[in-house]
Design a protein that fits this description.
The mean pLDDT is 94. The chain has two domains: 4-132, N-terminal domain of MutM-like DNA repair proteins (Alpha-Beta Barrel); 145-236, Helicase, Ruva Protein, domain 3. The protein has 275 residues and is α+β, with helices and mostly antiparallel strands. 28% of the residues lie in helices and 19% in strands. It has helices spanning 4-18, 39-46, 124-132, 145-153, 159-163, 174-184, 197-216; strands at 25-28, 34-35, 51-57, 60-65, 70-74, 79-84, 96-101, 107-112, 118-122, 257-259, 267-269.
């Protein structure tokens, strides 16, 4: 599932590629990806609108329109926003669910093999209501070790589960929760409130460093994730824990352990290093 680094990469790419463009028309081929709007309403509200900017909130790609509306795209497992300038491989557009026609023969597609992602259209008040329920952004300047420690002290749940709770901290999913905890040498199953101030500081550093490095590498691709040009991210080869069950820990050499016991998601950690 695209997490913060992947959606940040997509948003930055789109902001450079389509800001200032007018949406000439929209074609919806798979309406089941739409939320809070029908295909007819979508066309009525976005046709003729200018794309002001594209940015990220949590795991959402947000496209601001001149009308005051915002398009919110949550790619989830297999979704991708792809700009077609006429040179995109056609197979990448096989699962296009929406097509926004832009000037000069260009188009913005939302493609989704499994159609588990969503595309919503929201006015300002609804957008504020929706995003106010999301947690703090881990790359905001206001998010420091003390803020993280405050979030952790309020929960008895496993630390990994807390990191992935979008109501508490926005944008971190399974990949980067595993990686941040490995970097901080923290057992993913520990109760969040049991972390000391020093451990919370180490975890904060692990979160920020892995997210920034993954953004620099344009995200992590295993099978489905693509950026706005249809290219794969390059961070997979730099993963230290996630997806490496049974392999040696890069830090101490012990065999990495895999489990689904914590939150029903794949968790990989080093029992020697992360105590």
């Amino acid at each position: 599932m695209p997490e913060l680094p992947e959606t940040e990469t997509i948003a930055r790419d789109l902001n450079r590629a389509i800001s200032g463009s007018i949406i000439e028309s929209v074609k919806v081929t798979r309406p089941d990806v739409l939320r809070e709007v029908t295909p007819r309403q979508l066309a009525s509200r976005v046709n003729g609108a200018r794309i002001e900017r594209t940015w990220r909130r949590a795991k959402l790609v947000v496209i601001d329109l001149s009308t005051g509306d915002r398009l919110l795209v949550q790619p989830r497992f297999t979704g991708a926003l792809i700009v077609d300038e006429g040179s995109i491989e056609k197979e990448l557009l096989t699962y296009s669910t929406l097509r926004f026609t832009l000037p000069r023969g260009r188009a913005l597609h939302y493609c989704d093999v499994r159609r588990l992602g969503t595309v919503s259209l929201m006015g300002d008040a609804r957008f504020t209501e929706y995003t106010d329920a999301l947690g703090i952004e881990p790359l905001d300047r206001s998010f420091g070790p003390a803020q993280l420690s405050g979030v952790l002290r309020a929960s008895v749940q496993a630390i990994k589960k807390v990191l992935m709770d979008q109501r508490k901290i926005a944008g971190i999913g399974n990949i980067y929760a595993n990686e941040a905890l490995w970097r901080a040498r923290v057992d993913p199953s520990r109760a969040a409130r049991s972390l000391t101030a020093r451990e919370a500081a180490a975890l904060h550093n692990g979160i920020v460093s892995v997210l920034k490095e993954a953004i620099d590498a344009r995200g992590t691709s295993f099978r489905d994730y693509r950026d706005a040009s249809g290219e794969r991210g390059g961070f997979a080869e730099r993963l230290q824990a996630y997806g490496r069950e049974g392999k040696p820990c890069p830090r101490c050499g012990a065999k990495l352990i895999g489990t689904h016991a914590i939150d029903g998601r794949s968790t990989t950690f080093c029992a020697r290093c992360q105590s």
